[in-house]
Specification:
This protein is α/β, with parallel strands linked by helices and about 140 residues long. Helix content is about 20%, strand content about 30%. The protein binds adenosine-5'-triphosphate (ATP) and magnesium ion.
Length: about 140
Amino acid sequence: MQELISNSSDETKEIAKKIASNLKKGDVIVLSGELGAGKTKFTEGVLEYFGLNNEISSPTFTIVNEYSTDDINIYHFDVYRLEDIDEFYAIGGEEYFDKGICIIEWGEMLEEILPKNYKKVIFDRDLKNENRRKIKLENICYK
Ligand SMILES: Nc1ncnc2c1ncn2[C@@H]1O[C@H](COP(=O)(O)OP(=O)(O)OP(=O)(O)O)[C@@H](O)[C@H]1O
Ligand SMILES: [Mg+2]
């Protein structure tokens, strides 16, 4: 596990871009952290890395948003509103895992059905500084 500090949403996006440079089809990344922690900002950074600038739409009212380039599909999930894993199965969620890169906000609720090598990014806010985040990386190579 590695721990980073971000002092702005742009820094969080830069961290995301660097991580994105090592991502490949079949990778699943869980983003974990409270409301407003930076999970969607991070996702924006990943999409920017793949040239999908400004295409992000918030998945608040859909469970998954799909993006693609000539080379890769990216699936951005927000499973906050799902009651349980059965609801994820009901939308065919697990069928996305091997079709591209899956980024799953609040994905810890799905842990038992995720590919066993899934990656995790945990965001922690700082009570004293509203722009500061502790970002923990699990199973992610970051140099
Ligand atoms: N260091 C930082 N990293 C990321 N976002 C930051 C940072 N500092 C301030 N922010 C702000 O915090 C907010 C993060 O919002 P974001 O939508 O990414 O959160 P989220 O974790 O996706 O929340 P939700 O669970 O509601 O989907 C943004 O308004 C962003 O500008
Ligand atoms: Mg979000």
